[in-house]
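Bench notes, afternoon.
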Amino acid sequence: MSGADQGVGGWLSQGLLFPSGRQAWKQGQPVQALTGHLFDAVQIAASAVENLAGEPGDQGAQRAFRERGVHSAVIADPLGWYYALVPPGTAEGWDGDALCIGSSHSIAVPAPHRTDPPGVHWLLPPPEGERMLCDAYAVWQLTASEDERQ
């Protein structure tokens, strides 16, 4: 079965660090997933996204991402971060202000059905395959300073 045929949980579960991850997801718990295999992750300060949106919280952040062409694959971490999942290998050439996490690292990935707070959740729909990852350039534009964008 190819990644595109496995649906959300099947595709994402290929990157989980522990075999018990699917069970944790059934209980609504986030699970550590390797970066650099299925995806890299751009770590963006929630305050920066909310400043772009002009309002705090998930609704403003959703609008800020969508207005810049990002429509899926963004995780909200209540510790003040958003993680935009981008194609693997992005970290190697990343020159943005935000940190792009590539191979040999991991991030907490919420259960595919966790789309609301509290806790780690999907700000925008989870990817069902690589085609649903964020466009790296769109994420770069979101994180770049105004001077860098011009």
